[in-house]
Amino acid sequence: xxxxxxxxxRIGLCACVVGALLAGCGxxxxxxxxxxxxxxxxxxxxxxxxxxxxxxxxAPQTRGQLEQDExxxxxxxxxxxxxxxxxxxxxxxxxxxxxxxRLDGDTLFLSQFSSGxxxxxxGCTPQGERPYQxxxxxx
Length: 139
Prior knowledge:
The protein has 139 residues and is an alpha+beta fold. It is built from 5 helices and 5 strands, in the order αααααβββββ.
């Protein structure tokens, strides 16, 4: 094999190995699907007015903060929140045990608990270089 061809083969193999390693570092499809399903479920419950079911998908601190801020039970407090109406999920990004779902009309932040994915913040809008501003969030 000519030296130039051998070098091209080595470079190609290195690129394949690096690509495989980087792909392995990404979130598994199961975790991405789990985060997406939790976010879609939360939005579906809100749209149906089933605030008790939506509350079960809130992270403990988020639920506690909502109840404390509103001085009401979660379902009643969540019903009073002015969360945006949403559409389809545009992107799902998972980083370790954290996830961000961008939907048409909203952004959700989630964390993975032993009981599954839970909503940490909802009604979030980007603020340029500053952190997102969220209607619903934990303390």
